[in-house]
Amino acid sequence: MKRDIQFVGVAPSVHALAHSPTSWTIVLACVAILAAFWQTAGSIVAIWIRSETFAHGFVIIPLCVWLAFRRRDALATVDVKPWWPGVAFVFAAGALWFVGAKADANVVQQFALAFMLQATIVTIIGIRAARILAFPLSFLLFAVPFGEFCVPTLMDWTADFTIIALRATGIPVYREANHFIIPSGSWSVVEGCSGIRYIIASVMIGTIYASVAYRSVTRRALFVAASIVVPVIANWMRAYLIVMIAHLSSMRLATGIDHIIYGWIFFGLVMLLLFWIGSFWQEQAPASALPFGWRIPTRTTDARTMRAQIAAACVALALAAVWQPIEAAVGGEVQGDPVVPPIAASAGWTRVPIVDDTKEWTPRYTGFATMLRQRFAKDGREVSVYVAYYRHQEEGHRLVTSVNMLTEPNNWQWHSTSTSPETIAWGSRTLKADRSEILGTKERLEALSFFWIGGHVTASAYEAKALQAIANVLGRGDDAALVVMYTPKQDAGDAARRTLDEFARAMSPSIEAALVKAREGGR
């Protein structure tokens, strides 16, 4: 009886894969797309290089290849031929890239590039083969640097848990935002304390483990969920234990480099425990699976199928690359440098000089084209207006980015103790703004802030990005601004709140007029 399965060794199996026409078609198509969108691909690699959080990106593609190679036996049982409806998904991914380009949203462009690669591969190999390679194809999304938007929330959760645990231990704590003081010293929950590195690493490793160790979709989903929840809770415990070690050692331990070392050791132990517990529910590979080095004789790709795959790859590449010239053609108006004119006094509010601008609180926004700060007074009350105006937005000169914020998380001189969305009166209409309490070393401020995007007002960063994309597509330019109104807060009452609300209602026409003149002045 002739054997259907034969031992051929590792090298012949790899050799056959490397010389597969389908493999070469996929490789060349993906390289062509990466070359066409080299700026987006380069932005991904640049983040891998400069950020330790996303340094794992360098191993994602090799892991995808390895995960696909593990499914070679199943692939040998299906016909690998083009799936032409896939080109529609390539075109849609290109459209998403175009929207991201017009909104100056790097992460949208980066995900769109990953979707283009996935859709191109599916178009070439067909839907049946794509089902077999669903996990390796999906795993490619881990190459996109994503997740930093969670950092502020994770920092808040870590600070909340640490302070609750310290107080439960009997240690008195004085807290201001994410800064707190205990009898042995002062602490700040900064970006490195958020645990985002642990969580991203845990989810990536946990996803691979779930795919390899389990066959059941339910078990895989539960383990991936555990790989998200466990490191979050572990990071809370890590932060609390580090503070306790430092406190009990009179600040001699866990305050320098050992602070980081203890954190990674603790994370490693937690992950080992997670995998050890998960191993009790491990499922055996199906009987049809082949050990490494064994393979089923593959189907031969005939000349007709090979030509169809090459044609599919060319069509997919053309439909992806067409968005590059479209993006270049659909540009905004060519404008000069903006100038924001002074805001006119109105409704009894009079302009007063700022004695020393260097001592003023300044929002941590960078890359703007121009900035305006003015102060107004009425009946012994003072309100300041800060405007950061943006035009010709590009890398390093964008309004809405993860690095632009009202205060720095680890800055003791000025820090935000609370921020909440609120509806305020703005002239004859209402709008959503963020109300924040800013604490300085010598004073406390109440602030209202929002984005002005070509005449539209919003407090949402996501809505601001969408409005920018629409304005760019319609050729209206990318003019945008941050507007902040703030006033001293003398006590725990709501006098400062009432002052800001009155000022916003009365001065909104003058502020709007200044912004409109700045936008029209560059035409």
Write the layout of secondary structure elements.
Elements: E1 6-7, H1 10-18, H2 21-36, H3 38-50, H4 60-69, H5 72-75, H6 86-102, H7 106-125, H8 127-132, H9 134-139, H10 151-169, E2 174-176, E3 179-182, E4 185-188, H11 196-213, H12 217-248, H13 257-278, E5 294-295, H14 303-321, H15 323-329, E6 350-352, E7 370-378, E8 381-390, E9 414-426, E10 429-440, E11 444-453, E12 456-458, H16 461-473, E13 480-488, H17 495-521
Antiparallel strand pairs: 1-5, 2-3, 3-4, 6-7, 7-8, 8-13, 9-10, 10-11, 11-12, 11-13
Short note summarizing the structure:
The chain has 523 residues and is an alpha+beta fold. The chain is built from 17 helices and 13 strands. Strands 6, 7, 8, 9, 10, 11, 12 and 13 form an eight-stranded antiparallel beta sheet that branches. A three-stranded antiparallel beta sheet has the order 2-3-4, with no helix packed on it.
